[in-house]
């Protein structure tokens, strides 16, 4: 008996389709046309709010939709002229991974270049204020933050106002430098913001990277960090609070490339209100030469009301068996009944007890900033979000 081949004719000579499995395999290009327009079926867009992000998919000239507050940096000698796409060190680290970052690269000819001088300790944070000038104004930007060898300092990017803003952020931490980079998204509710952060950390260097997102209609901040040097260290922290109708997303990538590198990833989010949505995808890659690596990633979400949804996907890829340790974890749920019971048993009213639980949950990230003035402002922002929560009604089930 002879078997009959029922394969359709148009598939006989077709190449097998193998979907992209890991973050490190994603295609890169400086040409937006190589990516096409996202449909929501692509691996890096399937959980995104593609409809509301659509204005950022258009490759066209844009207005000056962002006002920069950088006078204090100029006075401190921290700004370096960066004219044209070929101005070093632009492009030393950054390569676009999606159409939005490719358009931002193409349409932003001149970069904002912040440099911490070699061997110097900056006692005061370098603060860049980026203010959107209108929800109907599309802007593209490229920022380079460079910490020279032996330098120590903190750079804060504070976003506010309204805009349609695509941003590329290139972070270079030279050998022996120690940098803290904090990106605060405090937009108005009509803002659409997509940012790609790409960092490299040199030998014996350290980078603390923090993403804090409260405001905005759709906020998608995707950071990646490459621990390239021997004994390079990196920490990636995130804090978000999504309200009704708000979409907050981070796709985080940490690549252990050098020997004896150490990495820690911790993102926490709270959600309240109908349609509140958070997306966190965490990828850790331990390369085949990254012996002695110690790495851990964790995402935790607290769902405060019905109608909110949190997606959390941790991934870990290990290419060598000689490591100190590696792990990942994810948890999404409602209030801890035991914590509430304990507080109420001490005479604290239920609403106040819920407020204290949320603050305790989120303040772990705030306290890692290390700058008291910024920590105080973020603590106030959390309190304001909670006041908008109308009693913090308990959720009947965890987000999806």
TrEMBL record:
Top-level taxon: Bacteria
Pfam families: SUFBD_core
Location of the SUF system FeS cluster assembly SufBD core domain: 134-361
Species, as recorded: Agrococcus baldri
Family the entry assigns: Belongs to the iron-sulfur cluster assembly SufBD family.
Stated name of the protein: Fe-S cluster assembly protein SufD
InterPro entries: Fe-S_cluster_assembly_SufBD, SUF_FeS_clus_asmbl_SufBD_core, SUF_FeS_clus_asmbl_SufBD_sf, SUF_FeS_clus_asmbl_SufD
Biological process according to GO: iron-sulfur cluster assembly
Lineage: Bacteria, Bacillati, Actinomycetota, Actinomycetes, Micrococcales
């Amino acid at each position: 008996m002879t078997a009959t081949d029922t394969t359709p004719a148009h598939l006989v000579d077709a190449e097998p389709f193998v979907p992209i499995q890991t973050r490190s395999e994603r295609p890169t290009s400086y040409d937006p046309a190589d990516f096409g327009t996202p449909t929501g079926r692509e691996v890096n867009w399937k959980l995104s709010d593609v409809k509301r992000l659509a204005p950022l998919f258009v490759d066209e000239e844009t207005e000056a939709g962002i006002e920069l507050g950088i006078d204090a940096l100029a006075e401190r000698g921290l700004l370096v002229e960066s004219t044209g796409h070929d101005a070093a060190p632009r492009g030393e680290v950054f390569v676009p991974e999606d159409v939005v970052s490719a358009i931002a690269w193409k349409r932003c000819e001149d970069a904002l270049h912040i440099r911490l001088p070699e061997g110097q300790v900056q006692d005061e944070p370098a603060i860049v204020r980026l203010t959107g000038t209108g929800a109907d104004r599309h802007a593209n930007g490229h920022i380079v933050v460079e910490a020279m060898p032996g330098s120590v300092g903190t750079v804060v990017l504070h976003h506010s106002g309204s805009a349609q803003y695509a941003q590329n952020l290139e972070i270079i931490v030279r050998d022996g430098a120690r940098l803290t980079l904090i990106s605060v998204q405090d937009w108005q509710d009509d803002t659409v913001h997509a940012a790609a952060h790409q960092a490299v950390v040199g030998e014996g260097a350290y980078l603390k990277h923090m993403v804090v997102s409260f405001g905005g209609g759709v906020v998608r901040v995707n950071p990646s960090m490459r621990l390239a040097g021997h004994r390079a260290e990196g920490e990636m922290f995130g804090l978000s609070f999504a309200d009704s109708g708000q979409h907050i997303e981070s796709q985080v990538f940490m690549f252990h490339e050098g020997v004896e590198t150490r990495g820690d990833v911790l993102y926490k989010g709270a959600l309240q209100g109908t349609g509140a949505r958070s997306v966190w995808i965490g990828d850790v890659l331990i390369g085949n030469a990254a012996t002695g690596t110690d790495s851990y990633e964790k995402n935790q979400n607290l769902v405060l009301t019905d109608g909110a949804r949190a997606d959390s996907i941790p991934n870990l890829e290990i290419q060598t068996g000689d490591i100190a340790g590696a792990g990942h974890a994810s948890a999404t749920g409602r209030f801890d009944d035991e914590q509430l019971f304990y507080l109420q048993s001490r005479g604290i009213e239920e609403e106040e007890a819920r407020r204290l639980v949320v603050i305790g949950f989120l303040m772990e990230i705030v306290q890692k900033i290390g700058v008291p003035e910024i920590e105080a402002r973020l603590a106030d922002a959390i309190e304001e979000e909670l006041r908008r929560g109308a009693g913090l009604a308990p959720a009947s089930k965890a987000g999806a």
